[in-house]
Amino acid sequence: xxxxAKLRPVPPPAEFVSPTPHWPAPTVGSRAELEELxxxxxxxxxxxxxxxxxxxxxxxxxxxARDAMVLALAEDAAAIIELAGGRVELFASSGTMLExxxxxxxxRGPASALLxxxxxxxxxxxxxxxxxxxxRAIVAAATAVAPGIAVxxxxxxxxxxxxxxxxxxxxxxxxxxxxxxxxxxxxxxEHRAFLGREPFVGLVERLKRAAPxxxxxxxxxxxxxAIVAAAxxxxxxxAEKFTPDQIALLVARMATIAQxxxxxxxxxxxxxxxxxxxxxxxxxxxxxxxxxLARPRDVQVRIGPLxxx
Length: 309
Fold this sequence. Notes:
Aldehyde Oxidoreductase, domain 3, alpha/beta, 2 domains, TIM Barrel, 4-stranded antiparallel sheet, 10 helices
C-alpha cells in the first residue's frame, strides 16, 4: 500500500502576519486578555467588511497623535492589531510625550485585520493616554515646587481595568498608592467604626502582631487624630481633605514627634490645579484619583488600500 503524499503548506502573502504575532514590545495585557478585547467588539465576524467582500484586500493603517499627549498602552494596541492579523511598526513607546501630528504606529495587512482591530486599538490608546497625560501634568506641577514629592494614584480606577490603569499611571510618571486590599495596611475611619473606642495604640499593637513586615498607614480627618496616630507609631499619616494650610501645620507638628517622623500623605480632592499648594505645604506624598477622570486624547486613524500609500 502506497503511503499518502505529503502536503506542502502554501505560504501566505508577504503582507499577511504569521499566526504567532510578532509583537513589537512586551505588553501589559496577556494574550488572552487582548484576545478578549477583540472578541468583545467582534464576537461573530465583521458583518460590514464581510458583506462588502473587501476583507482580503491588502491595506495599511496609520495612527497619529491629534492632541499633545503622554502615550500609553501603545504596545498593547500594536499587539491587538497583530492578533487580528496585521503587522505593526511602532514609532513611539508608552511614556513618550507626543506633539500633535506625531506618528504612533503603522500597520499593514488584509483589510479584515485592520478594520477588525481599528477601534479597539485606537480607543485603548486614547483612554489610557488621557490618564497618563493627566498624571504627568500632576507630577510636573508637584515636582516643580518639591522635586522629591511622590504622586500616588489610588485604586479607584474602573473595575476590571486595573492592569491598564497601573500602566497608564506609570507612563505618566506617577506611582500607585495601593494596588488593592491584599498588600497594604491602611486603617480607615470606616474600619475604626467597628472597633468601638479602642485607642490608636491598641490598633498599632494589634496590626504589628498580625502584619509585622508591613508599614502601617492610617487615614485621619483632624489634626488631633494625626498627632495621636503619629505618637503611637503609625508609619504613614494620610490626611483626608486637609487644606494646604492644615498640611503645613501637620508637617510642622510631625517634626516634634519623638520617634521617627511619619510620612505625611495628603489625600482627597487633589488635582493639577491645586497639587502645587500641597507640595509647597510639605506633604511627602499626594494621593489622587484625578487622572482616572481625564478626557481621552485624540488619535487620528487613516486606513486604505496599499495602492493608496
